[in-house]
Design goal:
Elements lengths: L9 H40 L5 H37 L2 H7 L4 H39 L12 E8 L2 E9 L6 E11 L2 E14 L2 E11 L4 E10 L5 H5 L10 H13 L5 H24 L12 H28 L4 H24 L1
Antiparallel strand pairs: 1-2, 2-3, 3-4, 4-5, 5-6
Length: 365
């Protein structure tokens, strides 16, 4: 049997794929529209509360939030698109005709599986190139209460580092390693737990023996005086990774950037298990679209031949919901360290793949 003979026919394959894709993206558009409208009801007040914000900022928020909603609900839209497609074909006796012509259940589903693979690839690229950047930008914007948006989308913001008794706050960090650039540096000089002075500077960079900050000024707490220091070297015991890797948000990084951050953390001797699980999930998450035709196949064939069509559709949706619940649970267990990273990301996928295959095999009996 050749690869092309696995499909019912070119005409039928294109027909089924078109039905599936149209219904999938129609459901996705409806979900995005409704969920974005509900989200705006809770966030528009906060956006407009900042002085100077108006309709432009609201639409900018929508532009950052919509990619997140699309990425989150695309697999569920694929599930609903599968169920709607198979229900329609079942009602029109098209599934019976395909089965009567000698096609197996796998051959009937083949066009949907191939189309869902294409959706999975698009989902990965979209999440890696668009969603990660939008998430990073939105997180920074929300940290400043929808005020002035930080310029660099890859920056880290509001980072705190401890150097002995001293505390260092950095408003924004660009770059990584020795090339890191600090912006808005505030050093709280403490002795024995008591605040002695506060040193502030607009810029900072890595130099031999510490971090050079400029133009720096020092406020003496006891005297109440301010002294201009020009360029000062501080944080002599602070490594670059303590600034740049103090808080790594997996959702705000692309696959490559997250992999590099994990490598840097590992080199610094810091735990990476939770981030490794998120890295694997950046692959298994989009690939979950391929599972949905298998889980929704019960709407076309059913486990019990006497089952009603509505019951079959409910079973298909229940299987899909169960997968999303199991996926979130496994990822949470991976973040807690209870599951190994690979198992946390891939166990639900493999489990429900077997369940979907069991449905198809049962339908062949």
């Amino acid at each position: 049997m050749t690869f092309t003979s696995f499909f019912p026919s070119r005409t039928v394959a294109i027909y089924m794929a078109r039905l599936f894709l149209v219904r999938t993206f129609a459901v996705l558009a409806a979900l995005v529209l409704v969920l974005q409208a509900l989200d705006l009801l809770s966030e528009s007040g906060r956006i407009l509360a900042f002085p100077g914000n108006g309709d432009a900022q609201v639409w900018h928020y929508v532009g950052l939030r919509v990619p997140q909603i699309i990425a989150r609900f695309l697999p569920f839209s694929v599930l609903l698109g599968t169920i709607l497609t198979l229900i329609t074909m079942n009602q029109n006796s098209e599934i019976i005709a395909l089965k009567g012509s000698g096609l197996s259940a796998h051959q009937v589903l083949a066009p949907l599986l191939v189309a869902s693979m294409g959706i999975a690839v698009i989902s990965f690229v979209f999440s890696d190139r668009v969603v990660a950047r939008a998430t990073a930008t939105l997180d920074q914007w929300q940290k400043v209460d929808y005020g002035r948006l930080p310029i660099d989308r890859g920056d880290r913001t509001n980072v705190w580092v401890r150097d002995g008794d001293d505390l260092i706050e950095v408003a924004q960090i660009r770059g990584r390693g020795n090339a890191a650039r600090l912006g808005g540096v505030t050093l709280y000089d403490r002795t024995g737990g008591n605040l002695v002075a506060v040193v502030h500077a607009d810029h900072g960079r890595r130099v031999a023996g510490g971090w050079a900050i400029w133009p720096a000024n020092r406020f003496d707490v006891a005297k109440g005086t301010v002294t201009q220091l020009g360029t000062a070297v501080v944080a002599k015991n602070v490594r670059p990774d303590q600034f740049t890797l103090s808080s790594v948000d997996a959702d705000g990084l692309s696959f490559g950037a997250l992999k590099s951050a994990i490598a840097d953390l590992s080199d610094a001797g810091r735990p990476t298990k939770a981030l490794e699980g998120s890295l694997w999930h950046k692959l298994s998450g989009p690939l979950s679209a391929v599972l949905m035709p298998l889980l929704g196949a019960v709407a076309a064939f059913g486990i019990a031949r006497s089952g009603k069509l509505f019951i079959r559709a409910v079973i298909g949706m229940a299987l899909g919901f169960a997968y999303f619940v199991a996926d979130n649970f496994a990822l949470a267990m991976g973040n807690l360290g209870a599951y190994p990273p690979f198992l946390a990301a891939w166990a639900p996928f493999l489990l429900f793949f077997l369940i979907g295959e069991a449905v198809l095999i049962r339908s062949e009996e």
